[in-house]
Amino acid sequence: MIVRTTAGEVRGEPIATGVRFRGIPYAAAPEGELRFAAPVPPPAWDGVRDAREPGPTAPQRQRTIPGLDLSAVVGTGWRRGPEYLTADVWTPGAGNRPVLVFLHGGAFIGGTGSAPVYDGTAFTRGGAVLVTVQYRLGIDGFLPLDGGATNLGLRDQLAALRWVKDNIAAFGGDPANVTLFGESAGAISVACLLGSPLSTGLFRRAIVQSGHANMVRGRVEADRLVRKIADGLGVEPTAEAFRTLSTEQLLDAQDAVLKPGGAPDLRGEDGLDRSFGLSPFLPLVGDDVLPEHPGSAIRDGVDLIAGTCREEMLLYFGPTGLLDVLTDEQAVAMLSASHPDAAGVLKSYGLGDGRKAGEVFVEAMTDLVFRDGVEELVENHRGRTFRYEFEWRAPRLGACHGMELPFVFDSLAASAGLVGDSPPVGLAREVNAAWTRFAATGDPGWAEGETKRLG
After folding, report:
1. Among 3.90.550.10, 3.40.50.1820, 3.40.50.360, 3.40.50.920, what is the CATH number of 1-455?
2. Where does the Carboxylesterase type B domain start and stop, copy by copy (predicted)?
């Protein structure tokens, strides 16, 4: 199948339920003067572009959790090449079909929209078009340098949505019926775009999976990070200076602030580090993308699904064995780096009352990092809102962060390292059908006001 886009023709690969296209540029390569600049449309090409193989990914270095293979979700590492602002499209064929646009997670420093779990076959089987997006990460995407554009990762996502609006009809999708969804950093991005004036008219519905609008930074905290990285590199904190550095140099500098104790103090005036130490790189409040806090600027008229996994933080602490050896004092010390009243918070969850410190810490952090922000997002949203909790427990990881993804995409076969050997196939069909139904109609199949228990 050959489709004509605004930049030229692309050739896809037939699959059992339709056609798949990979690595289609939605913006020009962010190199040279376009590095640290807002995305611009891709240059046109002659002839038919082969879109049957995955394209490059955003520059990144893979972070691992000992004893856990997450490659199905985060990919296998950096696929090099400058032209990485691309989209993959799965379509059942001609029509006027609902469109889902997915933003991957990865703490704003890693991940790819072409990872195996994000296969769109199940969505096309249900009659929908799926688009997955690559966007700038880390220093390239979320470091606000003088002389450069801010929130570049979000600007890339907006450019991808504009590309969808202009091109998706040629792939059989309805540009007036777009659902934007994402998980983790992708969900934070969706929540931010819900509060961005620049996203008006670009999507009709949204799904926020384990993320919310509170994981953002103010200018003061962001400037501390800029200065720390610039000082480490020995350059001025400007886009012009950073353009003289190689991608490898920037990744080295990124690694330095990701090490324990490597980042500056990123707590705001209220004493909170909004990322709770998970990533120094977050969207910035105070520019034209996010002129005000996105949680207070959520747009009317957008249908919303939002939810979490029951045991989010088990992903980070379960496989390492830390839960079994963590002491009360260590739990308080770990949370104190991000919260001004760590001891009081953990005590309210039962620390010191005979419960294991690891269990208390996971429960408290699941709420602080994920669930509380999702509840606030739901409360602030003005429009049709549906809440879920993913509860199915994998053999090793429980209902941890990201566990819903193979079920949302109904891609269990690609996810054995996450879900184990005998995951419930029926649950995957149920969840994927709910997301597809919501994209088509605005109704996932359960009532507003209730929390749907998945699993």
Report:
1. 3.40.50.1820
2. 2-446
